[in-house]
Design a protein that fits this description.
The protein is of the alpha/beta class. The chain is built from 8 helices and 14 strands. β2 (62-65) and β3 (68-71) form a beta hairpin.
Length: 349
């Protein structure tokens, strides 16, 4: 009897599952995934369709499909998003990767897998009203005129080239610089200039000559004519649905100027950066480009005017401010919000 009971227990125990809940479940077949191709384009007329005349593409924008991200290429705007399972998904753009002022449009979902050779066109728009797309007003003093440059017209044509080489399309930079003018004179003529030119962007580079009139350092606690004048230019641009891009003041040539002048410039630029954040303007850090390049005298034609190498740096700063997300400029502020109520001063003069 005991032998039979012992045999029964052994047989029963052999049939019981072990600790851990039974035999392991075999993995299922891997989920098949597919690449998704998207093209991020500037939808100039806002109709949501990539028209034959719309040639501008946005580079280095992060495209998200179902949590999978690809980055758009230079010139083509094409992004390949890998690892997307079959299904229907929304396409979105990561806002921190977007250049200032652009806004993505709402898209219908896309079906994955895409048909052979298909691309999802992803439109973005600019709030420029009736202003012509891809036009820029370069506004300033003799540096905007291009004095000291030999092979180009200063920074203006270089900005056009950089935009075309990276974003495609045709870009037109209109020059409105007056030699010897100060920011006060710029504030006096900005409204007429924008009414005359109706551009999508305003590129401001003013303040170099203000040193000659106001050598006292400005502070956040006291009125500062230069900052007030630059603020007014930005506010006028916003009212005209023109995207404001403001440059820091470039340093002067230390071989011809006292050190106090560049100390004044550095202090003014901190105030310009703060004011740009307040007003939602994009910042072109030309000053930073000069100081990082080093050997300041090698970048100048004379005491204040850059040579061709210096103008290349200014053009690069404006290009980055226009075509790259704000983090690329070294600033800590987010994508500009154009038409919020201005902080600080009123646009009334």
């Amino acid at each position: 009897m005991r032998a039979r009971l012992r045999l029964f227990i052994l047989i029963t125990a052999a049939g019981l599952p072990g600790c851990g809940g039974g035999s392991p479940t075999s993995p299922g077949p891997p989920v098949q995934t597919y690449p998704v191709t998207a093209v991020v384009f500037y939808d100039e007329n806002g109709n949501g369709v990539l028209d034959a005349t719309e040639a501008v593409r946005l580079p280095e924008v992060d495209v998200d499909v179902s949590g999978h991200v690809g980055r758009s290429e230079k010139l083509t705007g094409r992004a390949v998003v890998s690892g997307v399972p079959a299904g229907s998904y929304a396409v979105s753009l990561k806002m921190p990767s977007m250049p200032p002022f652009y806004a993505p449009a709402t898209l219908p979902p896309i079906t994955v897998p895409q048909a052979a050779g298909a691309e999802a066109d992803v439109p973005v728009t600019l709030p420029i009203g009736d202003n012509p797309p891809n036009t820029y007003l370069a506004f300033g003093d003799s540096i905007t005129v291009g004095e000291g440059s030999h092979s180009t017209d200063g920074y203006r044509s270089v900005v056009e080239e950089l935009l075309a080489q990276n974003m495609g399309g045709r870009h037109r930079v209109i020059g409105d610089g007056i030699s010897g003018s100060k920011s006060e004179q710029g504030a006096d003529r900005i409204e007429a200039s924008l009414r005359r030119n109706h551009t999508a962007y305003l590129l401001i580079l003013y303040g170099t000559n203000d040193w000659n009139k106001n050598k006292s350092p400005c502070t956040l606690a006291s009125p500062c004519p230069t900052i007030d004048n630059l603020r007014f230019m930005i506010q006028v641009a916003k009212a005209a649905h023109t995207m404001p891009v403001i440059s820091t003041i470039i340093p002067s040539n230390p071989s011809f100027n006292p050190p106090e002048r560049n100390e004044w410039v550095a202090g003014m630029n901190e105030l310009i950066k703060a004011m740009a954040r307040q007003e939602g303007a994009a910042l072109a850090d030309s000053y930073g480009a000069f100081t990082k390049a080093g050997n300041l005298p090698s970048l100048f034609f004379d005491h204040v005017h850059p040579n061709d190498a210096g103008y290349q740096l200014i053009a690069g700063a404006f290009f980055i401010a226009i075509a790259r997300p704000p983090v690329a400029t070294g600033s800590r502020w987010g994508v500009p919000s154009l038409f919020l109520a201005p902080v600080g001063a009123s646009a009334d003069r």
